[in-house]
Amino acid sequence: MSTAEEFRLRFNILGPIEGWSNGERLRLGGVIQERVLATLLLEPGKVLPVSRLVEAAWDEDPPTTASHQVRKAVADLRRRIPGGAEVLVTDGPGYRVDEEQCEIDVAEFGLLIRNAKLAASDGRAAEAAEMLRSALELWRGPVLGGGGGPVIERASTSFEERRMTAAEQRIDLRLALGDAAELVVELRELAERHPLRESLRGQLMLALYRSGRQAEALDEYGKVRELLADELGIDPGPHLTKLYEGILRESPELAGPEPAPAAAPVMAVALPAEPPSTLPYDLADFTGRDQELAEILDGAKRGSEQGPLVVAIDGMGGCGKTSLAVRAAHRLAPDYPDGQLHLDLRGHTPGDQPVTAGIALDTLLRAVGVPGQLIPDDVPARTALWRSTLLGKRMLILFDNAADAAAIHPLLPLSPGSLVMVTSRARLVDLDGAQWISIGEMSPEDSAMLVAETLGDRRVAAEPEAAAELARLCGHLPLALRIATARLRNRPRWTLQYLAERLRDETRRLDELSSGARSVSATLRLSYQALDEECRHAFSTLSLHPGNEIDAHAAGALLGVPARDAEDLLEMLLDVHLVQQPEIGLYTFHDLVRSFAQSLFAEAPEDTDAVERLLGYYLTTTEVACDLLYSGRRRRSTGIDPSTSELPALDTPQRARAWFRREQGSLLAAVTLAERRGHDRYVVCLARNLVFQLNDLGLLEEFGELSRVAVAAADRLQDLSLLGVSLSNLGVACWKLGRLAEGLEAARRGRDVAIELGDLYTQAHSESILGQFNSLLGDFPAALEHMETAIAHERDLDMPRAEAESLTILSTLYEQWGRYEEAREAARRSADLSRRLGQHEGLPGAMTDLAFAHVGLGAHEEADRCLTEARALYGDTGNEANLALTLALSADVEHRLGKPVRDPDQAERALDMMRKNSSPLRRAKVENVVGRLRRRQGDTAAALELHRHAHELAASLGYRVEQAYALTGMADALGDDPAAARYREKAEQIFTELGVPAEHRRR
């Protein structure tokens, strides 16, 4: 993955579906998104057609828009998943998951099963059993939590069978290893859950028999025989019957394995000269816990003569176990000169499976300098090597976040001299001989010290009683105290008494929590319960916002209050860390906090009025922003009353542009929210406004997907006016994405709808798009007819903005045709219109078109002036696809004028931009421009590679003129190579069909 070093991505579907990135849970969207993703994850690397995903996403009778909704779900998932475009790949008629870009528990399960099979066939039964145990621990429940359509249900059934087969194989291995007695309890539980599974019942009978419990084994046979007769009217199968008879006569074949011979001695490995130390850093602001710390330090001094000293620290999540253990470890480090090691066992880490004994031992052995080739494959041998290596050594080992005592047993040294410290949320009573230290709430004195440390002695000294009360109201929990004191640090005008009074008003709600059940969610509830009713309502309602960030105006719309009041409420939530503030004016929920807030709707219905207020606010604000940014844009009736919510001050194009870009993610999410709630009119009207911005930024995939969603919504509304606009936008998106067949169909349908309605505005736009498609496909006369019709309509209807856009298309058509003077005139008219409108988003494109015409006429100085202006207009934030063409032509023109190559090279910048862009049409043109430049610079190899790739793109799209120029470039780069003549012949054939004279072609 290109961003593999930036984040670690994992998906779990062996249970409720989960996505994790660097330990943070991803919000994957609604049911459709989850089912689509789960179906793709079930078969990683395999291309699944959209029809298969539709079948998986709906239980029965999918809607007519199901295919569009699947595509929309994929686009939404790509936005939600870091690097989503690389994970969910479009491939031919469908999609696939690139399994190299993420970890998937299903894939890990399959790999462990395969490795276990290999280990078992090699005679490594213990290692195979351990691998199967690890595989089974990946399961958290049925696939997708038992939900999903027939496709997922069938997959779930199949995987459940694989799970049970793996469980039985593991039991067979352990029975062969002589672990019969230890398996009885596990087998009884499995048999109870699967009472008709004879293979499990046979394993239970065998385990009981080998444990010396022959009567119980025979009794199990009687139970299953009776059950099968009652439920199915059949007798036990021949295998179970034969086993019963063997137990009855005590057949020697059923005896357990002979005791294993003594293992070969494991040679210890010398520790490195420099003692290893992997302890985390000691917190500078660690406060309190003096009694517990002293207990650990005193216990370590006493030591143990029979084995290592083990100190087990347990307590609730958030009480500071790890911080205490690390502080003690650093204090004790000088007493353990042979090294200090830390290992996170991830027993309670969100999104992670606990570290297995095998992996833990591998990590420990490598940490003390054991070469990888000397580390054994099986866990018992690794344990033996680990223990022999520590003989006679004094080492301190901190095992953090252990799930249970079983995770620790194989890692314990046997010889005295070392200190083992363990942290866990549960008391590890099975660690015999351990010194247990349970920590819970801090003492009042320690709490006061923490408040003073975080707030400063002066503020605490001024209000000592309020400080003590604040600590009490926070339950003397470090995490809760830090939340409260952070609020005070962020609000220096607040007094401790003021905050204590706010918390005191709601303390009756804290009775629901007991200290033993405190966790992150309980801490969130503590913060929530300290709020007044208005803030609670705001907290839950604001979680309806679909984006990552929210400002005061959007919050005001959701809550139905002025922006200033909404900001006050947000600030109150910020005080208790229920929202965060990534930058001034913006607020965001942490994913866990958002989940907590949305869970509150379990007891209260969602506020549908709030959602409509938000959608209305976004629609009205985008209308205002578009009027400022896209002057000349025609206002259309939406059929929706303007929002009465307070709008942001978008009084200049700069502010409107900044607002649009900041809110882009939220606006796209709002369209998804509107579609999910059935607000199709909002879907269409919001999409119409958003596509202007997406087009400007070159976000073409999003442009296309949003346009499809809008067309589907307009179809559902049966509103021909909105359908015509949506089809017109879809045509533009497909043109830029190079999806010519889909775009041509959309443009034709859009024109027909416009004619039916008598809508000359939409008809003009559709004619312009039809002209563009015919130009790309090489039918220049038809393209010219469409363009002349479009421009005539736009002029008659006084649509200067649309006319300017059509004139740039006309200029490009003439330039491709070799009619450079007419291309120059069309580009000049477009630039003049853009200047009169005072809008610059179309002007740099017009100036670039004008430069192309000047180049065709040999006026390179004029072209250079046009390109200088275009680059200045784009700045650093322009549409990258358009800017790339401007930079490529700039490099070409400057080389023709004998100017030195810039640093950085503008041509290389252009190529870099296009590698990241989704417009294959523009990329083909840019690569041809740079290819011609590289040939003139003498780099024929680079020129050939660029023209070849441009030809591949253009040919696949039917972009005929660039296909011909790519062939010409390949021929020029090859020189006297025999293939050059073939390429020239093919190019000449295309140019002749297009009607482009030889003397009027790009050189």
Concise structural overview:
The protein has 43 helices and 14 strands.
SSE topology sketch:
Elements: E1 9-12, E2 18-21, E3 24-25, H1 31-42, E4 48-49, H2 50-57, H3 66-80, H4 84-87, E5 88-91, E6 94-97, E7 103-104, H5 105-121, H6 125-136, H7 150-176, H8 180-193, H9 198-210, H10 214-232, H11 238-248, H12 290-302, E8 309-315, H13 321-332, E9 340-344, H14 357-367, H15 379-389, E10 396-402, E11 419-424, E12 435-439, H16 444-455, H17 457-462, H18 464-473, H19 478-490, H20 496-504, H21 520-529, H22 533-542, H23 552-559, H24 563-575, E13 580-583, E14 586-588, H25 591-599, H26 608-629, H27 653-677, H28 680-697, H29 700-717, H30 720-737, H31 740-757, H32 760-777, H33 780-796, H34 800-817, H35 820-837, H36 843-856, H37 860-874, H38 880-896, H39 906-915, H40 920-936, H41 940-957, H42 960-974, H43 978-994
Parallel strand pairs: 1-7, 8-11, 8-12, 9-10, 10-11
Antiparallel strand pairs: 1-2, 2-3, 4-6, 5-6, 13-14
